[in-house]
Fold this sequence. Notes:
Elements: E1 2-5, E2 10-17, E3 30-36, H1 38-48, E4 53-59, H2 61-73, E5 77-82, E6 88-95, E7 100-103, H3 112-125, E8 131-135, H4 146-156, E9 161-164, H5 167-174, E10 180-181, H6 185-192, E11 196-198, H7 199-212, E12 217-220, E13 226-230, E14 233-238, H8 250-260, H9 265-279, E15 299-301, E16 309-314
Parallel strand pairs: 1-4, 1-8, 2-6, 4-5, 8-9, 9-10
Antiparallel strand pairs: 2-3, 6-7, 11-16, 12-13, 13-14, 14-15
Helix pairs in contact: 1-8, 3-4, 4-5, 6-7, 8-9
EC number: 2.7.1.56
GO molecular function: 1-phosphofructokinase activity
Family: Belongs to the carbohydrate kinase PfkB family.
Amino acid sequence: MILTVTPNPxxxxxxxxxxxxxxxxxxxxxxxxxxxxxxxxxxxxVAAAGAPTLAVLPLGGAPGALVAGLLDDQGxxxxxxxxxxxxxxxxxxxxxxxxxxxxxxxxPELTGPEAEALLESVGEESAGADWIACCGSLPRGLEPSWxxxxxxxxxxxxxxxALDTSGPALLAALREHPDVVKPNxxxxxxxxxRPLATVGDAVKAAEELRGLGAAAVLASLGAxxxxxxxASGTWFASAPVDAVRSNVGAGDSSLxxxxxxxxxxxxxxxxxxxxxxxxxxxxxxxxPTPEHLRPEAVTITAEVPLDRPLKEPAT
Length: 315
């Protein structure tokens, strides 16, 4: 079972539009409403794959109730921590050429007791979990050290931790030695304080995160694929994508694929890439089911192309 923790969940509304013309009326050609937040998306991807999952998240107001209802409709068990503030609602505009514009609301400010209640809920629900995936930004009211406290408590209970966050929260949590961290290229560049222009730059940055405490680093490099750096070495994997429809939740789907396949080694990396490639070809934040996956199309190698320039350099 994969337990997910989403400190700042959301209600996500995605509109598909032919293009954006600022100041004009834009008519959508399609729309979706989904429960959102990185951990929520991981749970949705795990459930879509037919595996058990439990989502722990703070919820408040009418949007929070709708998030819980949507998750229940997808067969996902929810451990809701009631908060006084209203769960945020986000908007994404997906253009026909694959360009995505997102408007993310700040979300509620959690009180000290609410933050502690969230930690306690994770501890209460974590029995029997194979992995705890802690994902996304921290809401107002939670210090960057909050994830570090969560990792420490989870390890004390014998659980394995996958962490997908960025900035000060990521750096603070590294001292508690999460089992795997999953930055994208921009988050990886931010963590080491320098731009990344090649696959080799990304590998070196991932090695530095391991030096700071991460047991393994699973890094998404956008169209270039993904790398996995752990105690056994470095692996590089990629897969062809016919057309990008929306990248909302693709990284979360990728993390779900990694954890479903055991959360370590090249087999898990191949699963991560297959899930991520499938997700970007679906509308909005739809999560791939087994029939969407093309594991045979994934190329994986220990001969990492270190000199290959990144198609989207991270600054």
